[in-house]
Amino acid sequence: MSLQKPTRLLAFAILIATVQATRLSFDRGLCQRPGNEALHGCPKSTLRVGPHAEFQHIQDAIDSISDRPDPFVILVEPGNYTEQLNITRAGSLWLLGVTDSPNDRTKNSVNVIWHNATGTATTGTYDNAYTSTLTIAPTFNASLTGTGPTGFAVPPDTPFGNVDFRTYNLNFINDYLPYAAGPSLALSISYANGGFYYTRFLSYQDTVYVGKLGNAYMYESEVAGQTDFFYGFGTCWITDSLVSLRGCGGGITAWKGTNTRFENKYGIYIHDSVVQKANSSLAIEGQCALGRPWNPQHRSIFANCYLDDSIRASGYIQWSTADPRVNQNTSMAEYRDFEQYAPFESVSEVFQFPSGGFGNTAWIHRHPRA
């Protein structure tokens, strides 16, 4: 019974998202063009953020729309924005960075920056959720990582959050220290759907957290880290992207499976992407593990990816010798033969609704090139 309320809410939210996707049809390339103060090509609901715009801070623009159901676009002018972003609304919200290269993440000129970590001598210890540069979750409790094999016990009546959150051409950075000093998230998404296009997430430890009932899709994006920099309970699909190794600690992935009353395919799936050291000066040949199991239900799959010489010959490793966390439920694989990979070969086969049904993909931008 505990799943019925979130399921009803999500069914309504999906209907809203479908309407919003139609209403938000616009010329992204024109909208994002530098000097577009008149917002040509942008939806009428577009808000602008910048030094001389209506809003100088991105979070102020987000707060101005609150929980209104209308779909919104926020267009952010180039610059460094030192702030944490928190998205709780259910209605569609897309963040766009101004750029003359909307199909090239390396030309992004909008940086959202935060400096925080947990578990260090300076900061003390608190939940990882406090550190994130960008958080998408309906409530603070929904975003908490917690501890132990099942993590924080999110209240069962927690509603699903944003059904169609997107970013295009932004960089999210948590640069507490230039090495893995403790969990320092650039992205945290739970109880929500998020699409990230031409977006960069840069940190060193626990860069991307996909929490419970979180769904994240990344296209032509970059994630940089050193230790366990993809982790979580939910589902993350990455394609045509760059996984940038800033060092080797733990594993690239560290997923924590979840017991459910239905078949689930929660995990991380990295497709048709490049996994390589961040720069040629790093002496990490054969030292980086593709992943290690946060609990025995860990699932991470690399499919048709280029792996440079940083990757260990074994591919994956145990959590530790004393506590391997590997059993018959553990899925850690690197595929070249897609016939073996059939159960996980498309987004419709892995993204699920809270009730357990597959096919939760209406929020994914299938052809995002401007």
Structural class designation: mainly beta
CATH superfamily: Single-stranded right-handed beta-helix, Pectin lyase-like
Helix content: under 10%
CATH class: Mainly Beta
Q: What does the largest sheet look like? A: 10 strands, parallel
Order of helices and strands: HHEHEEEEEEHEEEEEEEEEEEEEEEEE
Tell me the span between the first and last alpha carbons.
Answer: 44 Å
Number of domains: 1
Estimate the mean pLDDT confidence: 92
Give the low-confidence spans: 1-22
CATH architecture: 3 Solenoid
Question: CATH fold name, please?
Answer: Pectate Lyase C-like
- Alpha plus pi helix count: 4
By DSSP, the count of extended strands is: 24
Radius of gyration: 19 Å
- The side-by-side strand order for the widest beta sheet comes to 1-2-5-8-11-14-17-20-22-24
Coarse shape: globular
| Percent range for β-strand residues | 25-35%
Describe the secondary structure blueprint for this structure:
Layout: H1 4-23, H2 28-31, E1 47-49, H3 58-65, E2 72-76, E3 79-82, E4 85-87, E5 93-97, E6 110-114, E7 134-136, H4 140-143, E8 165-168, E9 171-174, E10 187-189, E11 192-197, E12 200-202, E13 208-210, E14 214-219, E15 222-227, E16 230-232, E17 235-239, E18 242-249, E19 253-255, E20 267-271, E21 274-277, E22 299-303, E23 306-307, E24 331-335
